[in-house]
Design brief:
Rossmann fold, 11 helices
């Protein structure tokens, strides 16, 4: 029997609850917002403009939309020092869910590897934010030489025990002795404040004809636009930059990168049907995850690049 949306999200609610619980020590109980000592103001991370529209406050953070390029981002945002402290001491629930063998994650990982290998690539892969190394396990099974970076100490230790070559430091602090045929970021790039700086660093680490692959939540997704602050995409702290199709293309071009492939995955139609039925989007009982009646189905939604997450493959111009 097919699982309802509620049953699917009940399996992952532990991750959401752990993430929100990690916010508490940073929040001012008087106003429910993050304490000023952890924050800084910033320009748009895509076009560097300073004009923006405030959208909503969520779990201590304020989301805004750039008036020039429509980029959605947190402003103010945690300082680099506060973010590093947060991630080094964060929970390891994500790795626990993936290690339990959830086919949801494995299917996405295999799809990403398929996309990379359409460019006839094989060799050395570097996974930024590799968690416990589950993606690297699958890459190794497909004959990739596996390398990773993970700031969370618990997850770093888990990945290292699997004999992946793993670093417990920031990318900019690591001196590599080789170039990589592929660099991957699975639900990581939205956590990086200065995406352009990191794209340029990664570009310099690519071997000839190498690629950068990332999966990121999409601010263009139908679910994000309909649910807005009720959408789990907006967590208030970790998801500092929420790109859409146009803004990730804009940033890539600024960094001298071509978009070789772009698609969306995960329709979230079941979540939307719950909400449209006046139920909690993540706790409603719909079993219809394939279409919004009389409006759109999952295939059509992703063909229009309105899925919940973007998978994008980038290569040097």
């Amino acid at each position: 029997m097919s699982q309802t949306v509620k049953e699917l999200h009940d399996q992952r609610s532990k991750l959401w609850k752990a993430s929100i619980a990690s916010h508490e020590k940073y929040i001012n109980p008087r106003d429910g917002l993050f304490k000023d000592e952890f924050l800084e103001e910033r320009k748009c991370p895509v076009c560097d403009k300073t004009e923006y529209l405030s959208i909503f406050t969520k779990e201590g953070g304020q989301y805004v939309k750039c008036s020039n390029c429509s980029m959605v981002f947190l402003n103010p945002v945690f300082t680099d020092e506060a973010l590093t402290d947060y991630y080094k001491n964060n929970h390891s629930v994500q790795s626990e869910l993936v290690e339990d063998g959830d086919p949801f994650y494995e299917n996405l990982y295999q799809l990403g590897l398929d996309t990379i290998e359409t460019k006839n690539l094989q060799g050395s892969i570097l996974d930024l934010g590799c968690s416990s190394g589950t993606f690297l396990d699958l890459a190794k099974n497909r004959n990739w030489e596996t390398n990773g970076i993970e700031l969370n100490v618990q997850e770093f230790n888990m990945a290292q025990k699997k004999n992946h070559h793993v670093y417990n430091d920031l990318l900019e602090n690591i001196k590599f002795e080789k170039k990589f045929d592929a660099i991957t970021l699975w639900d990581v790039f939205e956590h990086i404040k200065n995406g352009g700086f990191y794209l340029n660093m990664m570009k310099d680490l690519l071997a000839k004809s190498g690629v950068i692959f990332m999966q990121i939540p999409s601010s263009d997704s139908l679910a994000a636009k309909v649910l807005q602050e009720k959408c789990n995409m907006f967590d208030g702290l970790e998801h500092v930059n929420l790109y859409g199709v146009s803004t990730i293309k804009w940033l890539a071009e600024r960094c001298g990168l071509d978009v070789l492939d772009i698609k969306t995955v995960i329709s979230e139609i079941g979540v939307l049907n719950n909400y449209l039925n006046y139920e909690d989007p993540y706790s409603g009982n719909t079993d219809n995850k394939t279409e919004i009646p009389n409006l759109i189905n999952a295939n059509e939604l992703n063909e229009k690049l309105m899925g919940y997450k973007i998978q994008v493959l980038l290569g040097e111009m």
